[in-house]
Every structure is written in C-alpha cells, then in structure tokens.
C-alpha cells in the first residue's frame, strides 16, 4: 500500500469505499512536494493567451523566466503574449520599493509594443515591499490611454485557484467597456479554453457550422477588444470550469448572461456540449445542423477509435491533471478506447467533481487530491498502470517506471479537444502504450521472468 | 551599442555601476533565478533533498524547468508558505516541511534555500535550524523522527542568478561537512553548471591522472539515471558525505569557471580560507587551450604525464580542427548563456577561426569581458560582450551583427529562427531537443563533439542554402 502523509490522509480515497468523501481545496502540506504551483501561476495561466496585451510580471526574474513561451496557446494574429516581460527587481528595489521601476517599465513597454492593454502581475514580494500596483496602473493608464490592469497574484496567497479568481477579477475590469452593437442573439463567449495547439479554432468551426457566433474567447487566441464587449453575448460556455466558473457567475450576476459548464474532450462530452448549446438557443435549425455535424464528425472519428481500441482493450490508465472536471472527460474517453482508470487525481479539484468521479470509476479506483511524486509513483505501481496522463512533472515518473505517457497539459502541441481531438488522443495513447520500447523496461522484463518461472 | 563601442577594448566593456543597461524592463531573460541553481546543486549530493523555504510555486516552477531539460524526476520540497505564514512567519511551515520530507524521503541531508518571499519578510532560517536541532524543543524530541543534516543557503532571486545560487548551495554543503585532516591525494573539483555527461567525463579525466576526485556537486546519476522497476524516491548517486568531509583536507581545489555576482563566496575559496586547501581557478575547459590548462594542472598535481589515450584524444581533436577549419574561417558566432560557459565557448570559437562577435549573458559578475580579454587577447577590439543582458538585446545586436551561427541554450531558438541561422544547443536549458543531460562540452572529448556539431551546422546551412543540392561538401 502507498504511504500517505498523516496530514494528507483525507485527500486520498477509493471509489466504492465506505468513505468516498475527499478533503480538497486546502493549502498544500509543507514538505509534501506538491505538484501544484501558486497563485501567480493560476493568474498567468488564465490571462496568458490574450495575444495583444503586454503581460508584465512585477517581481524578481524567476517568475517571468519560468512562464516564458512554455504553453501551446496559439494566436491567429499578434503574439505579444509569447514575450516574457519582467520588472526584474533587484536588491535596491526591494529596499527602496519597486514602484518607479514598475512605472518606467510599463511606459517603456507600452511605447515599444503598442499593446491594447497591459496586465501587471504581482509576485510574492510585491505585497511585502508595499508597492501600490493599482495606483501605478491607474497613473500609467491615464498617461497612455492604455488600460493597465493590476492582477493581485502574489504567489503565497494560495494555490492556482486563488490565482484564477484574481485573473477573473482582472478580466471583469475589461468586460463591459466595449460596444456590443451588432452582436446577434445566438452568440457565445468561450471561457476557460486557452487555444492549446489551436483547439479553440476547432470549436469555433463547430459553432460556425451550427450557426452560433463567438463574441469573445477567454482567453485562447483572445483579444482585448473582444473581451471588452463580451457582455453582449447570449451565453457563456465554461470549458475549464476550475478557472473561469467564477467569471461566468460574475457575468451572470452583472450582465444577466447565463452559462453552461461544458467539456470539449471525448466524444460524449463534446457532442453533449454542442447539443446543450443548441438546446439553449431553442432554434430548430441550429439543432438540426448540430445533429448533422455530430453525426458527420463521429462517423469520421469512430474508425480511428475502434482501431486503437483493439490493442488497448483492458489496459490500465492513471490520470493526474490540473483540474478535476477535465478528469471526468478523460475517464470517459479512456473507456471509449477500452481502458480502465486505476488512478484519477488533480491538483485543484472540487468536492463535487471528486464525488462524480467516485461514482463514475470502477470500484477501487484511487482518487487523490493534491498528490506528489512519492504517492503517484507508488499508485502507478500499485495500480499496474500501463499509461499515465498528466503534464511535464508527471512524465518522468511514468517513464522512470516504464509506463506510457500522454501529455494533457498546457504544453501539448497536439489538439485533444473536439471530435478530431478524440482521434488524436486515441492515436497518441495507442502510440505510446504500444511502443516496442517498453520491452526493455525492467518492470516488464521482471514480469516476463516471473511468468517464465 | 554603436559600432564604435563594438571596438572598445574588452577591459572597458563590463557593466559597472557607472555603465548600466540602457533600458528598464527585462524582455526574455537570459538567466534563471538563484533558487533554481541551489536546487540543481543540492541534487548533486548523495541523499540530499532540495527544499525551498517559500511559496509553493517556486519549487514547482523550478521542478518543471529542470525536468524539461534533464528528463528525470526532480523532487524539490517546499515549505508552502501561505498568507498567514507570510504575516506571522514561516517557522512552523519549515518545521512541518522538514519533518514530512524526513518521513517520506529519509534523507541524509535536507538542502534548504530561501526564496524572494522568505528573504524579504526577514526569515532567520539559520536560527530556525538551530531550534529544529534542539534536543528538548527540536524535531526529534517532538516527533520521534531523527533529524537529518540541515544546511541553508541564502538565495533570493533579486540578489543574483542561478549560477550564484548554485555556488552558494555547494559552498554551504561544504561548509557544513568539510573536516580538517591529514592532507590526502584527492583533488576537490568544483565543475560549475554542466551536463551529466560532462560530470562523468571530468571524473574520468581526474582519475586518469591517478588522483582521487571529490566532484562537488555530481548529479550525473540522479539527473541522468536508468529506468527502474521500483521507484526510488531519493535516487542513488551524488557526491558522498565522506567525499565532502575529505574536501577539508584535499591536496587542492579546482574551480572551473566561478564567475559570480560580487559578494558570492565560492566553496573553493571557503576551503582555502578555513583549511588552507590550495585553490586553483581555471576557465571551463572548452577548446584545446583551456583544456590544456586543466590537464596541465592535473599533471602538476599528480606528477604524472598525460595518459596515452588522452594524448590521442587531444591529437584527434587537433586533426579534426584542421580537417574542418575551412568551414569555420571568416564565420561569425553569437555565444550566449551562463558566464562560465560563454567564456569557454568564446575561447573555443576563437581558436577554430570563428569570431564570437557577441558574447552575451544574463550574469552580472562584472568581470566577463576582462576574463575573455585575459584568455583571448586576440579577440580584443573584435567582439562585444553583453552582460546582464536579455534576448531583446541579443536579438537587436544579432540583427546588426548578422552572425552565421548561434551557440547557446534553447531559449535562443526564436532569435536564430528569425535570423535564419543554425542554433547549436549547449548548456542549460535545452527544452526543445532530447538529450540535454548528455550534451558534452568539456575536455578534448566534449570539444570534439562541440566542434563536429558546430561545423556540421555550418555545412548544413550552406548546403541547405545552395540551389544546387550538393551531396558532396
């Protein structure tokens, strides 16, 4: 059995167990080597894809370095978001304050790059040294006419979740400042999709074929001017629910825009999302076009899925991702290719999602919140996983143990959303699980030996 | 920098308090933060778990950055300082963290490094460690878990670069363990930031002269390990505690590179000061001239001649230089990255006939240009040195200098791509190719690999640009 630190005991459970209730949304246990990042990371993740804004990290250099162009969030136009801007605070700023450095940096960058807006991310020490970031932002906005928006993302505030909230607050500062003239009734905003590997373009294409217009993308391939008029849309689609549900709720409250939680991963959830949109607009034509689209796309995808399934039937998968809502879609998508989930966990999941996962998964599936390498590696061995789905930090755990891997994180270069994404996912999983290299991994060599004995 | 300044003597090019950068914000930095360097260094000591006293994000970001280079698990613990700890102090977080790491990893030592946050709120980690070790109030008394060795390095990102953090961590491990004793025949070797393959080669070189080698740190196993059947939370490998203890009475210390922000003391300097171990500082052995300095020193320390296989390795490198020199002549390169690495690369370029027209770094020792001038007087007046620089500046200079090739880490890719020239990937990080941990840079052997890659990249560029499609170059 896997050893779990006493302080984390209630963050691990098994589906079908007497106490499926899980403890989550709490500060990481010190010394646990959590896979989580910080508040700054949460804000940076949500706002980063806005391509025509300057994203200025106010702090010493590290925070800006580690978030420089590491995600596959694509833009169809400007690419300012791919640059890493930092006030690069030095000792003298820590002693005497960094406000002047921030103001000068903002003025310099706005002069050089002519952005539509500037986001200023506070890092750990900014609050501590007492810089008044909102005041500087206000001053520079007044001088330049460019909205400068403070993002209160000091890392120590908590996990990514608090950073999501700070980002949503920053977005709310922009929303409602644009002209909504000409926006049709059948229109949506896409929230919490970051256009990784061009995924939002796939979704936009579906919506176009259905006859639904997209007003603003928050924030994949996002533009400041679109976001400013997002309050004119008829419906908010919330894809990454962990990061942007709060924004949807705020927009509902302030502008009366209803929202739907959707997932674009897997055939079931993708089709379900499109039908939910069609039903929302209560337009028989949209519904008819949606039916046609879903039938056409599924017909294209299923052959790939069934082909991959032949080799994957009965294989075992482990999932550890950022948010728990996505994990639900992954469990379903894995089922579609014949795979059983033996471990599912996330960095910042919610009680409701974990409860749903507990019902969804086969009895005995390990469910874990805010895990770490020691636990995950042990869970992988215990569950005899053939595949691990996660991000960069999970990959070496899988490989070290001779387990196949599928990157489902923000660095991915392969679109996994939409029907085509399901086909990509099936191929990706198949390619890794069925690779001949595993025959050399000691884990397999040992099991082979024991079979022979 | 105007063309006039480009011809300025190297001795006048270092950034001084009087000669600061011309801009305010940093765009696409050419350095990493101090805690990253500390974590990397700690990982090179056997049984040591790196531990950052700060917010959770620092350790996670650094893990991801290093994992992407080394393709190995990289566990860095965090005290996960939150809002209340920021206000009331993080001591209980540190204590809980140390206890938990001890339970899970059973380390010999926990290598603690500070972060911007905990330095700024004034955490006195040294005092906390003393209290952790207290027989009545300490961790063992309270939890029943034996307290491992605890070391601490100050590494606030605003004070320096990853190279400074690396050297600070090495120094603190040495300070905590090194012991006096009868002078032995071992040599302390402080390699600086290099690849796992480099570390293996350095050990081989020193032992080829019959010398024992305390290589500090040595992450060649932990960050370039084998696939296993059962996961090791704390993988084997690294400089042993006994080796670090023996460093206090070694025959000599050799530091390769060691260009650090003023005020950062090197482990070799500390050993000299405390135990009078003679300290030799050499440039990173890249290229024949700089490697000769290293092998000559090994010869002096051992009293042995260069072993035959190494003589041949050197000879083959000379042969290769001659075979390839026509592809190098009149070519211009930009070399960028860590100060120690670019010092070696500049010298290597110079000796094969490539002019390193721009030598750029995010480091700020303030000595880089003078060091390059000292090692390569022939470059004086021909090259520009950019310290405390970023990729916005490097790209701007590159557009004017029109180099034929860039040599540096993977963050230079965009610049090279825009210029339409090859990038030969060296140093840290290499995030867009496999094998960053296996790239060889040091010694005749590393130089051989580097030379082949550089020359082949130049040949390939010429071949690809040619409308003819020569298959015979």
Structure write-up:
The complex is a heterodimer of chains A (453) and B (473). Chain A is an alpha/beta fold and 453 residues long. Chain A folds into 3 domains: 39-174, 3-Layer(aba) Sandwich (Rossmann fold), CATH 3.40.50; 187-292, Rossmann fold (3-Layer(aba) Sandwich); 313-413, Nitrogenase molybdenum iron protein domain (Rossmann fold), CATH 3.40.50.1980. Chain A contains 18 helices and 14 strands. Chain A has helices at 39-47, 62-65, 91-96, 99-113, 124-129, 133-144, 160-174, 199-210, 224-228, 241-255, 267-281, 284-312, 324-336, 351-360, 373-382, 395-400, 418-433, 442-452, and strands at 12-14, 53-58, 85-86, 117-122, 148-151, 187-193, 213-219, 235-238, 259-261, 316-321, 340-346, 366-369, 387-390, 404-407. In chain A, the strands form 3 sheets. Chain A has a 6-stranded mixed β-sheet, sandwiched between helices. A 4-stranded parallel β-sheet of chain A has the order 3-2-4-5, sandwiched between helices. In chain A, strands 7-6-8-9 form a 4-stranded parallel β-sheet, sandwiched between helices. In chain A, helix 2 links the parallel strand 2 (53-58) and strand 3 (85-86). In chain A, helix 12 (284-312) runs parallel beside helix 17. With 473 residues, chain B is an alpha/beta fold. Chain B has 2 domains: 3-14 and 310-465, Rossmann fold (3-Layer(aba) Sandwich), CATH 3.40.50.1980; 34-282, 3-Layer(aba) Sandwich (Rossmann fold), CATH 3.40.50.1980. In chain B, 44% of the residues lie in helices and 13% in strands. Chain B has 19 helices and 14 strands. Chain B has helices at residues 3-6, 34-42, 56-70, 83-88, 91-105, 116-120, 125-132, 139-143, 162-177, 196-208, 241-246, 267-275, 288-302, 308-328, 339-352, 368-375, 391-401, 413-419, 443-465, and strands at residues 26-27, 48-53, 77-78, 109-114, 149-153, 186-190, 212-215, 252-256, 279-282, 331-336, 354-360, 384-386, 405-408, 423-425. In chain B, the strands form 3 sheets. In chain B, strands 12-11-10-13-14 form a 5-stranded parallel β-sheet, sandwiched between helices. In chain B, strand 11, helix 16 and strand 12 (384-386) form a beta-alpha-beta unit. The two termini of chain B are 37 Å apart. Residues 1-5 of chain B have low confidence and may be disordered. Chains A and B meet through helix 1, helix 2, strand 3, helix 3 and helix 4 of A and strand 1, helix 3, strand 3, helix 4 and helix 5 of B. Strand 3 (85-86) of chain A pairs antiparallel with strand 1 (26-27) of chain B, so a sheet runs across the interface. Chain B: It comes from Propionibacterium cyclohexanicum. Chain B: One of its GO terms (molecular function) is nitrogenase activity. Chain B: Belongs to the NifD/NifK/NifE/NifN family.
